[in-house]
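Researcher: We're teaching a course module on how sequence relates to structure. For the next exercise, students receive a sequence and then see the predicted structure as C-alpha cells, so they can try to spot secondary structure elements on their own. Here is the exercise chain.
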Amino acid sequence: MYLKRISIRNIRCISELDIDLESRASSNNSLVLLGDNGVGKSTILKCIALGMCDEGGASALLADMYGALIRSGEDCGEIKLVLNRGKSEYSITTQITKSPDDEDIEEIRRETTSSEETFPWSQVFLCGYGPSRVLRGTKSYEQYAIADAVYTLFMYDWELQNPELTVRRYAWKNPKREKEILAQLAEILMVKRNAIKLSRTGITMQEDFIDIDVPFGALADGHQSTLNWVLDLIAWTYLNERKSPAGVVLIDEIENHLHPKWQRHIMRLISDAFPRIQFIATSHSAICAASVTDKTQRGFVVGESHVLRRSNDGSVVNTELSELAGMRYDQVLSSLAFDFTPRFPTQLEQLLNRVRQTYVDPKSKQTAAFKKAIEELRALSPFDAEKEVDRINQAEFETIVAKAKKRTPRKASKKKR
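Model: And here is the predicted structure for the students to work with:
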C-alpha cells in the first residue's frame, strides 16, 4: 500500500495542509520534504505513522509523545491518509480529541473506508526512522508491528534492531540471501560489492583507503547509521513474512552523517535497493532535494520535492517544486526550495563587486585599482577571474559593434519604377 494523499488539520503548527502524491511515473512515488526549522516536517512524518497504525498502536505512540498534538486553541485535530493498493483505494481518518475527563489527555478515534474487520491491515507496511540513527541496534523482535517499527520517530534514543541478527536470520533460512543482502548494503553505501562481510565476530566493512576489515562499531557514523536503519528495515520485512513488501518508509533528516557525494545519490540508491517502497524523507540539504529528479534503474523518476513555508497568517503552505531538475546546488539554495540569500557577502562576492566598481569604461582597465582587484580575484578563483574578464571583453565588443552600427549610413532604398 502506498500513500496517495496526506491531509492534516489542526495538528501542532499545521492548521490545514494537503499533500497530493498522485504519481507521475510510478505507484510508489517518493517524497522529500523541505523547509525551515519549525514548519512541521517531522510532525508530518509522525502524523503518517499515527495514521497508518492500528488504533491501539497509535494510542501507545500518542501517549509517549512529548507535548500536545492538537494545535493550540483547537479542540480536535485530524489526519486523513488516502492509500492505494493496485487499483483499489482506501482511506484512514484519525481524529484526535481532548479527553472529557482531562483536557491534557488526548484520545484517538479511527474511521476507515471499510470496517476494521474488512480493512486490509495485513497489507499495510510502514517503518520510520528518527534523526538519531547511530545508536548500535540491540533489540530483537519476534513479529512485525507498525508501532514498534516507527518508534524512533517519537523516541530519538530508542534503539533499532540488532543488525547482525538480521543478517544471520536470513542466512539461517537461505545462505544465498545473505550474500544478496550484503551486496545490497554495499550498493547503498557506495563501496565495493564484496566490501561488507559477516564473520564469526560480526559485520565488517573494508573501506577503499585501507586493506583491513573494519568492525561495525568502528565504522564512520554515516556508515553505521545507514547500516543500522537499512538492516532494521530488512529485519521488519523478514518478520512481516513477505520477501519484498510494498509499503512506506519514513526518514527524518535523511542527510544526517552523509558526505555530499553520498547525499547526491542516497534517494536513488535506496529506491533501487527497495523498488516497492515509497520513501518519505525530510531534509535540509539542497543536494538531497535535487537528487529526487534522478531516474531509478527501472527508468522512473525517484519522486518529488515539496517545500513547506509559513504564510503571512502563520499557517503552513505546501508547494511542489518542479524546477529542480538540472539546477546547480547554488541555484537550488537560492530557489523557492531554500530561499537562501547570504546576509553578508562572501569574499568572492566582495572581490567581484570591486572589479565591477573599478571598471566603468574601457580606459578603467588600465587603472591600478582595477588591475589589483583582478589579480586578487585570480588568486582566489582563477575560473571566476577569467569569466569576469570575458564578460567585460564581451560587453566592450558589443559596445563597439553598437557604435559602428550607428556610424554606418543607411543605404538609400531603391524606388520602384
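Model: If you want an answer key for the exercise: The longest strand covers residues 88-98. The chain has 13 helices and 14 strands.
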